[in-house]
Here is the input.
Amino acid sequence: MLKIFPSILSADFSRLGEEIKLVEEANADGLHIDVMDGKFVNNISIGIPVVKSIRKCSNLFFDVHLMIEDPDKYIKNFADAGADGITFHIEATKDPFNTINLIKECNKKVGISIKPETEIPDKSILKDIDLLLIMSVNPGFGGQKYIEAVNEKIEKLLKIRYENDLHFDIQVDGGINKDNILAVAKCGADIAVVGSAIFSADDKKSAVLELKNISSL
Here is the structure.
C-alpha cells in the first residue's frame, strides 16, 4: 500500500504542532520536512531548530529532505535534531558515496533525490540507499502542478529495482493530489509526499484518509 508523508512546507507554521498532530491522528506514515537554503533552490525554508522543536511533539518518521548546497556539512546536525531519514540531492554533491556514508554513520535512513530532468543514478549508488526520491515538480516551491512525464521514470526505476534485486523505496514528491495519486501508486511508487492537498484542506485528517483510500483502489 502507498504510504503518505505529509509535507509541512504547506502547513500553517503558526499552528505547526497542531497540524502535525492532526495528520498523525489520521495515520500518516511519516512527515516530510523540506530544508531549503536559497542557493540550491531559490526559496528558503526551515532549518535545524524547527526540526528539533517539532520532534518533541510527534512520533512520526521524520523524512528530512535537504535541498541545499554542500549537504555533508549539516547531516550530523539534522541527525542530532531528530531526523529519522536524510535525503540529499545528487545534483548538490560532488561525492554521493561520501554523503551516503556520512548519513549511515549517523544511523539514519539514506535517501537520494533527483530533479525531474535528472537521470536515475547508477546501480552502484542505488544498492547503498534506502530511498530514491523522484521530484515531480521543480524543487523549491509548493503548490506546483505534477509533471506527468515523471510517471515513466517511476516505472523505469521500479524495473531497475526488480531486475537487480535492490531494496530501496521509491518516493515521489510534488503536485500529488486526489486526482493523480492512484496513477502514482500504479506506476510503482512506495511513498507519496503530499503538501497542499492535505494542509490546504479544511479537514486535514479527512484529506489524509481520502488519499490513502484512493491510492489503495
